[in-house]
């Protein structure tokens, strides 16, 4: 009677442990090496140190606890455990033998599931207890428990996901592949669809993961392996306090895991034994997967065609993709690829999914047609001024956003200029590109991003109708000079002569006068930003003003022309700013002249080449 | 004991079982025969609860076998392709089966050791040959003391001595505790010696199911010779096969032997001889024109 009511079957469970014990030991040792061992090492090093150093070492070790590699190892263990426990489902003789035995499917599923789950979670739990015993201090124990708790959650999620995938697959190599695909499906689709849309609209692709938008970060949770490995871990705040960084919504993973277990159980109970050897155990899943594979395969083929037609990052062929050519080629290439796949892997044994393939090709080709029709009125892609609540533009992080200088009108105007210069951008052929990113926040709180890769020709900065001039004019406004360094009292201003890489101090100059002169030169546009590090490196920095002032943190004047003021590189109470000037800086030269320092003596030429 | 009623099963759209029905009585040894692809293994897998029928029902003592743990504890199954866990020894498997079958008899297990002297209980099963593994499967299955034993090609791979040994153990079990055995095999001569009932399967259905004695009594081979022309045989019951070699005419006739004898004598042959058909011959003639073109291959 006992076997009738019990969901477990001890004899089934014991059988798995012949293999699971090894997995369990490996994970325990790995986590020990990554955690407790490092704490022990830190404690050994700190012997003889300050009394409080004992704890500081632990904090130091804990603050570097990232989930990155650990989550991957846990995922790997979850995959292997699930495969070990349910491998008989992929063995014709094994599945028949076990299902002929007097054991119910519920007992088989629960026994194997619990086995693998224990093998995945037990090492994490043991390490959690071990770590807690080592740390002793309550706040640290709490943090470490959070860390290991999240790892256990990851183990639970990944193991359940893997079990579900095993239940729907009939061959052993497919579940791990699907595991990786599903873990990166959201990000993959985001990249693919983003790539596709941007290529169709702008003719080039510029999308980055983790753009800093909080809303997007939450959506990355749909790719749990990526999210848990990169967005979670222990970190130390500036105050010295340790915190566990992670999205509060991670409890959703627990719910998702429970749902997956239930689905896996239902799938197991309904799994036909004869489905062994089939890719998928349910006919309706085959249709679903075929359609999914068809769609993704066509998008990939489509992207390849677009990439061939639009040379990457040269923008020479924006909007030139021919809708009919792309659609027909996509379908043709898809057909060839699917034939090869069917013949080699036998994914679709009986019939290829031709109708969805044709529909997909029409959709893709039609999209190009529609988008290009819209592309002729390119400016309509910019949100209307009355719809926008806020806007800003950022260029490759070289320029600061300035202080309240970016009005909505300014940003839209610059965006329009870029769009008006489309033909120049397409035909420029410059390989030196920089990214301009516009961010509009609509009144309904939705965001609109516009990103462009723009060619840069330094000589054109002085041509009034050029794109470079417009960009320069926009970013080189006097109002954008960060106030902080100029608000302070400058301690000293020293002039250095720089020859063959060696600096030689020439003179010490009056700080007040020099500050006035520098500000005037910025105002006149004589001191201009360097847009690229590459440009800066090409220009020999011959004459440098070194300005020392009280601590002001990091500050930049638009570009690297004013080198970053780095407190840590100097004394704690003094910051240093270096400034390379040129022959156009008349106000600076005037001061130098006043102090009898001639340019000829400094061997000065034109500093800024553009 | 075992009732299979109109079971239908399809794999990937092709129907393998087309309303299969059969009935095995308690204490019988039932031989399931049929050509390759007839669906014997499939119906056996339904009887052991591995497959679930698309339609129809498989009942053991009136209860469906699918997911019926209590009923499965009364059945032992030895498949054609035996499976043992990786790295397991006979000792391990004994523990495993003992935990699953409440009726597992340790004493009987020890007693059976004398029949399998070459088997080392502590050696890994995978290191043994297929035939030896089959012996171990028999050993374990008999020790489970099942009420029903289902065998799929049981003696395939066993040497003649061991075959005889295994059959004798089985017959002993049947005699002692009314064990019901369903056996599927292509070795019809061997089945003829042990089975009391036979079911012939063809194209996914059981085309004939009778006791062996009845079956042999119902189909006769008659060899005869006539002086002059061959008489008319239209008054005879169902003639399955007819052939002539010289003056000797051979008929395979279905029907009652007394009636057939009377009708033949009435035709005044020079001589005639009534011969019982072997199971192999019955099998071939029953399937003649169905799965095979039998023609004259046997005569």
Largest interface: A-B, 24 and 25 residues
The low-pLDDT segments of chain A are: 48-54, 210-215, 312-319, 397-404, 531-541, 553-571, 604-610
What helical percentage do the residues of chain A reach?
Answer: 55-70%
- Low-confidence runs of at least 5 consecutive residues of chain B: 293-299
Span of the ends, CA to CA of chain A: 91 Å
Give the tally of structural domains of chain B.
Answer: 2
Identify the CATH architecture of the largest domain in chain B.
3-Layer(aba) Sandwich
Indicate the structural class of chain B. alpha/beta
Mean pLDDT of chain B: 86
What is the straight-line distance between the termini of chain B?
39 Å
Report on this structure:
The complex is a heterodimer of chains A (610) and B (299). Chain A has 610 residues and is α+β, with helices and mostly antiparallel strands. Chain A has four domains: 10-181 and 219-278, no CATH class; 288-379, no CATH class; 389-479, no CATH class; 483-609, no CATH class. Chain A contains 24 helices and nine strands. In chain A, helix 10 runs parallel beside helix 14 (283-309) and helix 15 (323-344) packs antiparallel against helix 16. The longest helix of chain A is centred in the first third of the chain and has 31 residues, at 105-135. The radius of gyration of chain A is 32 Å and the shape is flat. The termini of chain A are far apart. Residues 48-54, 210-215, 312-319, 397-404, 531-541, 553-571 and 604-610 of chain A have low confidence and may be disordered. Chain B has 299 residues and is of the alpha/beta class. Chain B folds into two domains: 2-211, Rossmann fold (3-Layer(aba) Sandwich), CATH 3.40.50; 218-290. Chain B is 32% helix and 29% strand. Chain B has helices at residues 40-47, 69-72, 90-100, 106-112, 130-143, 160-177, 188-194, 212-218, 257-266, 279-287; strands spanning 2-11, 14-24, 29-33, 55-60, 63-64, 75-78, 148-152, 180-184, 197-202, 205-211, 219-225, 239-245, 248-254, 271-276. In chain B, the strands form three sheets. In chain B, strands 6-7-8-3-9-10 form a six-stranded mixed beta sheet, sandwiched between helices. Chain B has a four-stranded antiparallel beta sheet with strand order 2-1-4-5, with helices on one face. In chain B, a hairpin with a 2-residue loop joins strand 12 and strand 13. In chain B, helix 4 (106-112) packs antiparallel against helix 5 (130-143). The longest helix of chain B is centred in the middle third of the chain and has 18 residues, at 160-177. Chain B is elongated, with a radius of gyration of 22 Å. The two termini of chain B are 39 Å apart.
